[in-house]
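From the shared-data thread, chain only:
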Amino acid sequence: MSMKNELLAPAGSLEAVKVAINYGADAVYCAGKRFGARSFIANLSDEEIVEAAEYVHLHSKRIYITLNTLIFEEEFEEVKNYIDFLYKHVDALIVQDYGVIHYVRTHYPDFPIHISTQCSIHNIEDVRFLKKLGVDRVVLAREVPLEDIRKIKEAGIDLEIFIHGALCFSFSGMCYLSYFHGGRSGNRGSCAQPCRQNYTLLEDGEPIDKGALLSMKDLNTIEQIKPLLELGIASLKIEGRAKSLEYLAAVVKIYRQIIDQFNAHEKIKVDQELLDDLYVSYSREKTKGYLFGENNKDITTDSSVKHQGVLVGKVIGYNDTQVKIKLYKELELLDGIRIISRGKEYGTTVTRIIENGQMVKVGQKQVFIDISDRINVGSPVYKTSSAKIKRELKSYYNPKKAKASLEVTIEGFRQTLSLKVNNIKIVHSHYEKLEKALTVKDDVLMKQFAKTNNLPIEYEKVLLHNDGGWYLPISKINEMRSSLLDELLEKLENQVERINNPYPYKDEESLYVKDKSVEEISLDREHIYSDLVDYKPLKEKEYAFHLKEIGENSIISPYFGVTNLEAVKFFRNITKGVIILSYESTLENAIKLAEFDKNLGFMVEYYPPLMVSKHCPVAKHYGVPNKGCGKCLEHHYQLVDREEIHDLHFKNCYMFIEGEKAFTDGDESLVSVKII
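Structure, as tokens:
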């Protein structure tokens, strides 16, 4: 089990890894060049993952790699090689695909697995199921409220909770809007973020609302986090691998302060300057989220979906080339600002500040800055980037060196080196007959031994014992030092906690079903919707959406995302029923899988379930704070984007966004699946 209240930071680059660790994160999560849910950012090369892991472990921290996309069969060989590489370096994998889970648990029984939020786990029964598989941690769905988390924690497995950053409108792992609109799959790492676009809400065909109706405010638990700390959640997770280093530094810094205050039994009090730094580096409208029971009317935003910044002043005058600003907070040269005037936004970097007739570096009260646009008096001025944060960050780009001590004892027949870095201790003994030195030059020996071969360590103490005045060649010193530091690198790679977890399932091809049970399956949409929103413990059912429901002959829902043979083997350990492949499986991929298992289902006629959400734009439009208005039962509602009209379906105050009925080609080797 991990430490309580681990602060887990996002890192989309090697620089971000170092910044997060230097600012106080206990762990970082990153992705490689493929198979991560943020494929549009740089991510880390294999060489960078090795360097990141060495750096993180040198500071006694942890590194997790996201392998949280659905994997097609043709990709799985590459995934196997990737897992083999990661096993040698990182502390855990964050995984969505049940095939990847099965492969790792059967081939690397001591490689920790964290279940991704993309699996949408939200009840204690599914968590207990995963615990029996030897899973080490579950990243709960963002929709799970605190009272449910208290219950789920009784399962006795590490839980990871998002505490800050962007929220998805749809339940994670259940969003197909991007995929069906433009082929960019959120489950495959390339979401186009259609939830940030503008939509029109229709009631019985008439428009009643318009705007970014699906755009969620950003989760921010700075003021509410104490109950999570008291509960002792294993990991508190910050979202934002695609965001700037300035944001990363500011958000880690502020949550580090909060957690440290709590651990020291101090009253939690957040420095206002830290808050300003955070909101300057990145801010949209904020929400306490479903986690803390945010009202339906307050969880999406009606304003810009872009970075807002911090209000620092207002325009009180202007001329042809400048605006005069009354400042509420300091403004510094090279700060970025945005001014909203006449419904337009004007953004610029401050390159000159005039106060009291003098050019200054920092403005305090009333200043002139250069803007040639005509700006209305009274227009608000927001700071959107900070020269101070960027200046401070420069010192954090460089590796933070771990403190070390070195003791060297030279004797005539034996030479001993003892190195200590954090909790790592290495002792090397070398045996060589030495001669007495004509002139003892211990300072030369000290200088040679104290070299670190470019490792980010620095010696607090170097002790040299050479009482006999023995002579040691420089070549021998270099050889001894390199051998010692090479072992340090090896130990850093093996800092991962490895515990063999029992796994109850087999990994045999004999598990595959050789004959079809049926030629065709028809599923009722209402039945599927009920499954999606029913979190109560149920007995096994014919159609299973939750892990806890799967019985010997259950039909496996496409929401489980089966796209490869390892996933088929996983579910064949539980059921002989039809495994309906993911909505995103291609026919080519499905036919390939059907060569091994004849009881696989493929969607041929269905309404694509583009999103399922806990939010209701109808209730928000009518000002109902927490849904339950019943409007959805009285009228027909639709969402209109630039291309399509989507019917909205409601069940127990959950909203489903539907696509137009889809017809696809099937194959005689597959069970045809229709949704009616």
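Residues 509-675 form one domain.
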